[in-house]
Specification:
The complex is a heterodimer of chains A (541) and B (142). By secondary structure, chain A is mainly beta. Chain A contains one helix and 34 strands. Among the domains of chain A are: 220 residues, Jelly Rolls; 109 residues, no CATH class. Chain A is 2% helix and 37% strand. A seven-stranded antiparallel β-sheet of chain A has the order 13-14-17-22-19-20-23, with no helix packed on it. A seven-stranded antiparallel β-sheet of chain A has the order 30-29-33-26-27-32-31, with no helix packed on it. In chain A, strand 4 and strand 5 form a beta hairpin. The model of chain B has no long low-confidence stretch (mean pLDDT 91). In chain B, helix 2 runs antiparallel to helix 3 and helix 3 runs antiparallel to helix 4. Chain B is an alpha+beta fold and 142 residues long. The chains are: A mainly beta (541), B alpha+beta (142). At the A-B interface, strand 28 and strand 31 of A face strand 1, strand 2, strand 3 and helix 1 of B.
Chain lengths: 541, 142
């Protein structure tokens, strides 16, 4: 029989059934035409559903997309080295030591060995996008591993340590740092300004400006000219920047509070400034006046009753080299942080000894003699303002406050360097040391200055300074009878004339004449009860 | 101690164990006295020198010439310098000659406080021929 067609009606079916013991049921497929099974390769067209397991004992070739609706296991040759698509866990699971392997020679493998998770590569491992590497690792000994940002290498690990390109910021560092070299911003004494946080005020009170006087420690006023007005400086312990103010990154507890007490007006020779003179021995590393002069960055907080552009300058000790910049106060009576970077001066005469090395000048409203239009450029002469910068001194009652003043080497403003109160006081005492002070009317016990020894006509005491002075100091001493008093044999005796016998950098010999007492007796020398008395040594710049 | 107010500076001399020291005395206000050492690095001393250049020696008073030798206190340029020396050491003291020679050389070299011709020639014209001969090698003051 060459052809048989089995067809069922709408209500029937065609069945080819073989009994269990009937032997094989064989379909021999045609070579052309539409067939359920193709000839030779047994092609089945359309969806074929198997309701039981399908066991294929040879290879399969799937040309279309495949969907496995349950777990799939890839069975490794070694027991347990399997890969399982675990449908319920929604993950492809590699058994221990079952590797994800890339490259013709298994160049890159990812696996878990039972203890550790491993990525192993036989050549360089590069991680990134199609254009740039993010991470480059060189497995060979001595290789350098690199970390990139934006295509720029930033971190490299080597056999010797880690190399970082750019700014390294951390919340803390450990180690002694003894081998740190070439740091543009040193870890300590970054701030060349002393008392930049205005916490030290040995002289106390509100101090009127003059032609060169000191106010808060190390901070000097200078005001001369035909119409320079007047201003005063005091320490404010109630108004200072804190980090709850927008833009403030440091916390403080004090500021310098400057008030214009009498308005000046435009005069070419007005010279009004609030400044700090820095000793040359503290700025020699800036190498100003040489080809390797370093940049300097000044940062500070300011709060002013006026807005606009204000002048600030770096000036040398000889007052013949200046670099002026302006800072903008955007909002009145609001603390704002300002950062200004100055180029180092490669020429000019700069002091590196105990004289004035560098001056930071905040312009209070100087006249045109102190103006320049060349900003951020070293110019001849003393300049600290511009023709358009705000002249604070012209507004009676105007106020300006400074806090957190920092001057550091380099082009980056680091957070304010907070030093201990004792450390800061000691730095101030190199320039001014209040030996003893007693306010008038004070009922406190007498302040002891030292032991006096009398020779029958005069008596002397040696006062050792807490800090060696920059130069032979000037003695400032109360001058009226009974300001001081001696206690010793025979009771107390009021001192009369006090004077300097010897002024040294380490200390001074005070001399008293008038009530010398018995020769040879040693007496305790104190301030007198209820009277104002002051002894101080000044070696300011 | 009396406050120096006019003149504003007073030269002060003290001694200990035979060593004489000189300071510049100034009123610091509020019953304060300021003792300024003769140290060129001391800013108060530098201000003293500036004030002398601006206002002349009239702002300084002195009643004790110390060891009688010219020094950085500038006492030697005061109008009463010779009298102070005579009062303390006598009119035949070598110190008087030293003082006159010192002032003559400064005047010839037009140095402080004799930069102006007027002040310079006051000294030069009043100097003895003996001293002028001793320093005849100095260039003529013009």
């Amino acid at each position: 029989m060459s052809k048989i067609r089995l067809s069922g009606s709408n209500s029937g079916y065609v069945e080819i059934a073989a009994a269990a013991d009937a032997g094989n049921l064989t379909f021999t497929m045609p070579t052309t035409g539409t067939a359920l099974f193709g000839n030779g390769n047994n092609v089945i067209s359309g969806i074929t559903t198997y309701n039981a397991a399908l066991d294929i004992n040879s290879s399969i070739d799937v040309s279309g997309a495949s969907v496995f609706n349950n777990d799939v296991t890839f069975d490794g040759a070694t027991a347990g080295y399997d890969v399982v698509w675990d449908r319920s866990d929604n993950q492809l699971e590699f058994g221990d030591n079952t590797k994800l392997s890339f490259g013709a020679s298994s160049d890159l493998q990812i696996f878990h060995d039972g203890n550790f998770n491993k990525i192993q590569a036989t050549s360089n491992l590069l991680i990134g996008d199609s254009s740039n590497n993010l991470i480059t690792m060189y497995p060979a000994n001595g290789g350098v591993n690199l970390l990139y940002t934006g295509g720029h290498q930033k971190l490299a690990t080597t056999l010797h340590g880690v190399n970082i390109t750019g700014i390294c910021t951390a919340t803390s560092f450990s180690g002694d740092g003894s081998n740190l070299t070439g740091l543009n911003t040193p870890l300590s004494f970054r701030n060349k300004i002393i008392n930049g946080d205005f916490t030290i005020h040995q002289r106390g009170g509100t101090i009127a400006s003059s032609s060169g006087n000191y106010t808060l420690d190390r901070w000097r006023t200078y005001r001369t000219g035909d119409s320079s007005g007047g201003f005063s400086v005091q320490q404010s312990l109630s108004s200072y920047p804190q980090t709850n103010i927008s833009g403030v990154i440091d916390n403080f507890k004090a500021s310098a509070f400057i008030t214009v007490t009498s308005a000046g007006s435009a005069a070419v020779n007005n010279n009004c400034k609030f400044q700090q003179r820095i000793e040359g021995s503290n700025v020699y590393d800036l190498a100003f006046g040489t080809a390797v002069a370093k940049k300097v960055t000044v940062s500070f907080y300011v709060k002013c009753s006026l807005t606009g552009d204000f002048g600030v300058a770096l000036v040398n000790g000889a007052h013949n080299r200046s670099n002026v910049q302006t800072y903008t106060i955007n909002n009145a009576t609001t603390w704002e942080r300002k950062v200004l970077t100055f180029d180092g001066d490669t020429s000019g005469s700069w002091e590196y000894g105990t004289g004035i090395g560098l001056q930071l000048m905040f312009d209070m409203g100087s006249g045109s003699d102190k103006h320049t239009s060349s900003l951020n450029t070293w110019v001849s002469g003393e300049k600290h303002g511009t023709s358009s910068s705000v002249k604070l001194i012209h507004t009676n009652g105007a106020t300006i406050q400074f806090a957190g003043v920092q001057l550091e080497s380099g082009d980056t403003a680091t957070p304010f360097e907070h030093r201990s109160f004792g450390d800061e006081l000691a730095r101030c005492q190199r320039y001014y040391e209040l030996i003893v002070e007693r306010d008038e009317g004070s009922n406190a016990k007498e302040n002891c200055i030292g032991l006096f020894w009398g020779d029958g006509s005069n008596s002397f005491t040696w006062v050792k300074f807490h800090q060696k002075k920059r130069t032979q100091p000037t003695l400032e001493i109360s001058n009226y009878t009974n300001a001081f008093r001696f206690y010793g044999s025979g009771g107390g005796v009021n001192a009369s004339t006090m004077s300097a016998n010897t002024l040294h950098r380490d200390g001074m010999l005070l001399e008293q004449s008038g009530n010398a007492g018995t020769a040879g007796f040693t007496r305790v020398f104190v301030t007198n009860n209820g009277l104002k008395a002051l002894v101080a040594a000044s070696a300011e710049l | 101690m009396t406050f120096p107010t006019d003149p504003i500076y007073k030269l002060y001399v003290t001694s200990l164990d035979g060593e004489t020291k000189q300071y510049i005395l100034k009123s610091g206000g509020e019953n304060m006295l300021i003792y300024i050492p003769l140290d060129p690095n001391n800013m108060d001393y530098q201000k003293y020198l500036e004030d002398l250049k601006t206002h002349g020696m009239s702002i300084v008073s002195c009643d004790n010439c110390g060891d009688g030798l010219p020094n950085d206190s500038m006492w030697q340029y005061l109008d009463n310098a010779e009298q102070l020396l005579i009062d303390k050491y006598g009119s035949d003291s070598d110190k008087l000659t030293t003082l006159r020679e010192h002032k003559y050389v400064r005047a010839m070299e037009a140095k402080f406080p004799y930069e102006s011709k007027n002040e310079g020639f006051k000294i030069i014209n009043s100097t003895s021929e003996e001293i002028k001969q001793k320093y005849r090698h100095l260039p003529m003051r013009r």
